[in-house]
């Protein structure tokens, strides 16, 4: 490869940043305690199981497809179908989680995730001929799971506990991210052909089943109100509504995630041609992320969010620059370690602040499902735009200068997120 060297007007929230700042008093949220209770811990465990199953196999899905057909555009189309399906599922399933049983929605997401790996096992190397089907199934799974998960997350946390929850979630994610891909890489290289892939996909199925079991210990959530299909759109059409810059920030967040979420692992594999080295890469970077999320979750208080976010944004851009020198395992590792070290400073304020905005008053809380849908559609819009740009560029050229510039462009999107969030963050914590 040339690239490598080896209801109403929509104004139910505060309609301006100033009004938003004024409204921030003790939040009318379902959970107001400053410590994590049993339900919160169970939700963290559910997240850990779901994350572990995907860390075990998800890291290697793009590698599995790549080995069957060396085609960047194909991987991009798989990701794009996944992202589009996820966004549509969020919007359509919003009615289910608001008016019916959101826990069943969560379990459906887990079950569909298991179904995805069953399909991959059944199709084998023919999976590359069913990219649209596989992308849709994985997108549906992600949409159902994360919609229900994010609603329950909002209901069991408060402004006082959100940074702690997100820090712990990141900590646990980094923990499984260390061990699962490393173990997967070891299994794959020790077994001939695609047997190793079949083994790790099968293990993931078992972990997803454990996740379903844990979900039954989460309490059935209260149902209130009716789902407004166009509520988020009306918010965005309302001049001065605080959700307009926030959604712009979320689109920028997704712009980077959409491509970096699948491309980095693929770059490591192409540069090394070794699943074991990819596993080692995940072990090292997740180890750094483990420490970073612990530190950020412990010390990144609301009043430090804006400054911390800016530092994180600048550094995740800087670590892309070594690619202009050479793209090999060492520069990829430098990128991975740098990203793992500083990304929590960006993602924790983004996540916590948006959910704080949802919980700023009783009227906003009553529309939490619509706001979560708006959040996720915004992120996935960014992901789709980024992935579409990737497909267009990579279909024309894989020259190092072209691809590295694309990575820098995509990787600089968090700066746009900070730009749109900075006034909200500063007003909120002033």
TrEMBL record:
Pfam families: MFS_1 (PF07690). Keywords: Membrane, Transmembrane, Transmembrane helix. It is a multi-pass membrane protein. SUPFAM superfamilies: MFS general substrate transporter. The keyword Transmembrane helix applies. One of its GO terms (cellular component) is plasma membrane. The keyword Repressor does not apply. GO terms for molecular function: transmembrane transporter activity. Gene3D superfamilies: MFS general substrate transporter like domains (1.20.1250.20). The chain crosses the membrane at residues 48-66, 72-93, 105-124, 130-153, 165-189, 195-218, 246-272, 278-296, 308-325, 331-351, 372-395, 401-421. It is found in: Cell membrane. This is MFS transporter. It comes from Paenibacillus lutrae.
